[in-house]
Amino acid sequence: MLKTLRGGFLVGLGYMLSPLSWWNDIFFNFPIAYAFGYGFKLINPSWFLPAMVIGYWLSNVLGILMMQFGAGDILFKDRKKNLTQDVLMGIGTSTLYTVAVAALVYFHILESPSFLLGDATF
Questions:
Q1: Structure-model confidence comparison of residues 71 and 94, the more confident one
Q2: pLDDT tens per residue across span 1-48
Q3: Over 93-122, what HEC string results?
């Protein structure tokens, strides 16, 4: 029972961080990415945008991995976990999603708000 509750919690929290929900970016991923980028901006202002992209990617990776581990707890109680495969799958899917979003912003298909990037431009 405890494993199922833990799995449900991980799936729920992971869903909020993952790229699978359309509304999560504005409420979760962008603030996390902005805080991550801002921390690096304090060290070197030119690091803000790259660090923000990395923070965004990391929040998506974390969300997908949490969902994978939570679903494993709920659905596959007897399955032996393959940690390497699960982590690589989470990193791969999150990387593809982040590259797609970055490309949409780079090619001005999606416009990023000026307050978010400040003086940084692509």
A1: 71
A2: 788 888 899 999 998 888 777 778 888 888 999 999 999 999 999 999
A3: HHHHHHHHHHHHHHCCCCCCCHHHHCCCCC
Cα(109)–Cα(17) distance, integer angstroms: 23
pTM, full prediction: 0.69
What are the sequence ranges of the domains in the chain?
Answer: 2-117
Are residues 66 and 11 in contact, defined by beta-carbon separation less than 8 angstroms? yes
Alpha-carbon distance 75 to 4, whole Å? 9
DSSP 49-84: HHHHHHHHHHHHHHHHHHHHHHHHHHH-SSSPP-HH
Question: 6: which DSSP letter?
Answer: H
Question: What is the H or E stretch that residue 40 is in?
Answer: helix 30-41
